[in-house]
Amino acid sequence: MRPRAGRVVYAAGVLGLVLAVWELVKFAVPERGVSVGDQRILPRTGDGALPHVWSVVTVLGERDNSGTVGETLLRTAGFTFGLALLALLIGTVVGVALAILMQRFGWVERGLLPYIIVSQTVPLIALAPLVAGWGGKIVIAGEPWRPWMSIAVIASYLAFFPVAVGMLRGLQAPSKASVELLHSYSAIWWETLVHLRFPAAVPHFLPALRLAAAASVIGAVVAEISTGTAGGIGRQIIVFAQQATGDASRLYAAVLAAALLGVAVTAVVGLAELALRRYSRPAGASRSRGGTR
């Protein structure tokens, strides 16, 4: 419990330092910023560009069209939270399946892995309209394609990559001697996968899953903005940006809500880490503590 409490205190301290620097910049830098010639070297600090910290907090209680600003952000963040979790689930399933396939067949890894890496160079903002257009022509069990489905698919496109790469590395982690030992017991490939490769892959899978969680939130927010889908935090950021003429407090509140959304999705991944903690230590760590015989 002490290391966990220490991490919480450390994170709170870092947050306090960031807020202190925020207010220091607000106090010390002129409202129009600092420029050398035509080049701006320090940002503007007026309320339209950089509001006070307490302004961002108090704006949550202001009335909006459908309640307070805080209620609007909570509702829209909840919508995006569900889509991010769905995207994380899809990306995890696809990533693990690809990793198993590439580990089983070397020729699949040689042919597929370069394209998986190259796929991440495609700009998401360019891919979103294509997915939305293709999805509009799909009917599943008599149900038409919904806009939120496009967002989930687009976000899972970012989430599957770290899972596939991390899981592949983990599945390839067992030593040749360990694999040959199971073969000597007449274990088939599937039994080797379940009893040896999966447990060995957990220390590589969990960090990849955390990266995928962050990527799913980013993908969901960008997809909402790119496709113009209403109801999520991404679209709400655009709405508040259009309203931020003299005071950007609502815009900053929406951006911070999106950041907290990423923390919430990562916390869900923490539950998976608790369930798999018995496998979370690399195999070499237990051998080094027990010594060699």
TrEMBL record:
The way it spans or sits in the membrane comes to: Multi-pass membrane protein
Q: Give yes or no: UniProt keyword Cell membrane.
A: yes
Q: Supply the alphabetized keyword list.
A: Cell membrane, Membrane, Transmembrane, Transmembrane helix, Transport
SUPFAM superfamilies (UniProt xref): MetI-like
According to its UniProt record, where is this protein mainly located?
membrane
GO biological process per UniProt: transmembrane transport
Family assignment?
Belongs to the binding-protein-dependent transport system permease family.
The name this protein goes by in its record? ABC transporter permease subunit
- From what organism does this protein derive? Nocardia colli
